[in-house]
Write a structure and sequence with these properties.
Distance between the termini: 29 Å
Order of helices and strands: EEEEEEHHH
Number of helices: 3
Radius of gyration: 13 Å
Structural class: alpha+beta
Number of domains: 1
Strand order of the largest sheet: 1-2
Protein name: Zinc ribbon domain-containing protein
Oligomer: single chain
Length: about 90
């Protein structure tokens, strides 16, 4: 399966269990299981709230990168990136 990113939170989805589910129980390949289950979003977030939520996982993200992001750098990057994701496009 080709690697995809969640079109809500930006998380890479590399295994079937990371994909969300549609209302009929089938796999949804656009959104991760944390953002989308049973055909609906799991949280009623604004884009800025989702960015704040993602910042809670910054330490986990930083352990896998050569140069860790500060909270401010990560927030700035997500503010640029999130508007390109399907859920946040205007």
């Amino acid at each position: 399966m080709k690697n995809k990113i969640c079109q809500s939170c930006g998380m890479p989805m590399m295994a079937e269990e990371q994909f969300g589910t549609n209302d009929d129980g089938s796999m949804n390949t656009e959104y991760c299981t944390y953002c989308y289950q049973d055909g609906a979003f799991t949280g009623n977030y604004t884009m800025n709230e989702m960015i704040d939520h993602n910042l809670e996982f910054l330490d986990e993200f930083n352990k896998d990168v050569e140069r860790p992001f500060t909270r401010e750098e990560a927030r700035a990057e997500m503010r640029k990136f999130f508007p390109t994701l399907k859920r946040w496009k205007n």
